[in-house]
């Protein structure tokens, strides 16, 4: 979804140029360079927002972006997996090109990604990355970013450990609030116009905010397997303390095929050690060939 275009951007594109004698004066360069804010929400289904008809989810800010901007109703993820999707968003490339094909430790490959931050920074933008990089467990700064605030791997829901421009520190608070505060500070700093600022510091900015929410609080090893959470970190889906229990009595809507075993889908019908079934109950495991055969007969 794209939010409303700032008035200053609209005016710079639609206002007629000033005429001075026989020459046409172009608008100031700064007016032609809009600020960019990209917000990525982890594990948010397309219909988990109120504007898409969800019966109880409260998403007023997302709804406003949809109503005042644009909402894409026919967009799809070519590789619906965490790390590959992130790489595709940042590069505009399919996974066969960018090389981030799974959720394992693709640290070195992710340092070589041709992200859109690189040309923006070269063009004079202040570029800020905030949150979950998650292409491996390496949280060190990547090329193209003026300011870097990243978590290792999956990060932590409470009091996250952040790599801030190469220095790691634990920041108290709920991760969504912590990352948002970091972004707000970056935007305010980018917008300052007092005489102490250099021309570079008054450049347009681009923010890439990759939230950890709504992903459960887990640790991930380099091979992609689940690891041990740090001491004191709650596991599973962790809301902000102020939202705890908010939807405790709500009924989660399920689609009609939610508990049906997949049929004629070999990749989904494989039995994979340690993974729960995709659908059905303990007697009808969708990953078990017999369950698939039984479902096909019905």
**In CATH, what is the class of the largest domain?**
Alpha Beta
Domain unit count? 2
Gap between N and C termini: 41 Å
In round numbers, the mean pLDDT is: 83
Number of strands: 10
The proportion of residues forming helix, as a percent range, comes to 10-25%
CATH architecture annotation of the largest domain: 3-Layer(aba) Sandwich
Radius of gyration: 23 Å
Proportion of residues in β-strands:
5-15%
The arrangement of helices and strands along the chain is HEEEHHHHHEEEEHEEEHH
- Main pleated sheet: 6 strands, mixed
Which helices and strands, and how do they pair?
Layout: H1 7-14, E1 18-20, E2 23-25, E3 36-40, H2 60-68, H3 82-91, H4 95-98, H5 107-111, H6 117-122, E4 126-132, E5 147-151, E6 161-164, E7 167-170, H7 175-191, E8 205-210, E9 219-220, E10 226-227, H8 266-269, H9 289-297
Parallel strand pairs: 3-8, 4-5, 4-8
Antiparallel strand pairs: 1-2, 5-6, 6-7, 9-10
Features:
alpha/beta; 298 residues; 24% helix; two-stranded antiparallel ribbon; disordered N terminus; Alkaline Phosphatase, subunit A; single chain; 10 strands; globular; 6-stranded mixed beta sheet
If you had to describe this structure to a student in words, what would you say it looks like?
This protein has 298 residues and is an alpha/beta fold. The protein folds into two domains: 28-243, 3-Layer(aba) Sandwich (Alkaline Phosphatase, subunit A), CATH 3.40.720.10; 266-297, no CATH class. Helices cover 24% and strands 14% of the residues. The protein is built from nine helices and ten strands. The strands form three sheets. The chain has a six-stranded mixed beta sheet. Strands 1-2 form a two-stranded antiparallel sheet. The longest helix has 17 residues, at 175-191. The two termini are 41 Å apart. Mean pLDDT is 83; it is low at 1-24 and 280-298.
């Amino acid at each position: 979804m794209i939010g409303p275009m700032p008035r200053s951007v609209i005016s710079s594109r639609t206002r007629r140029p000033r005429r001075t004698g026989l020459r046409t004066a172009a608008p100031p360069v700064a007016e032609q360079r809009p600020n960019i804010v990209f917000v990525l929400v982890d594990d948010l289904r397309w219909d988990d927002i109120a504007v898409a008809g969800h019966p109880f989810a409260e998403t007023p800010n997302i709804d406003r972006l949809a109503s005042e901007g644009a909402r894409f109703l026919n967009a799809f993820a070519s590789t619906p997996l965490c790390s590959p999707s992130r790489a595709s968003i940042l590069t505009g490339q399919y996974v066969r090109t960018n090389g981030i094909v799974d959720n394992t430790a693709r640290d070195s490959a992710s340092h070589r990604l041709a992200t859109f931050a690189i040309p923006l920074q070269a063009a004079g933008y202040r570029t800020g990355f905030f949150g979950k990089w998650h292409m491996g467990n390496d949280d060190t700064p990547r090329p193209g970013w003026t300011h870097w605030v990243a978590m290792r791997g999956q990060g932590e829901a409470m009091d996250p450990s952040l790599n801030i421009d190469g220095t790691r520190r634990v920041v108290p608070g709920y991760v969504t609030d912590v990352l948002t505060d970091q972004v707000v500070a970056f935007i305010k700093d980018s917008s300052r116009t007092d005489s102490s600022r250099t021309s570079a510091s008054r450049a347009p900015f681009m923010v890439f905010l990759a939230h950890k929410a709504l992903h459960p609080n887990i640790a991930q090893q380099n091979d992609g397997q689940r690891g041990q959470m740090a001491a004191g970190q709650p596991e599973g889906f962790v809301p902000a303390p102020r939202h705890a229990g908010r939807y405790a009595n709500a009924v989660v809507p399920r689609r009609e095929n939610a508990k049906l075993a997949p049929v004629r889908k070999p990749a989904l019908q494989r039995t994979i050690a340690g993974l729960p079934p995709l659908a059905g109950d303990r007697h009808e495991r969708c990953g078990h060939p017999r369950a698939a055969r039984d479902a096909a007969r019905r």
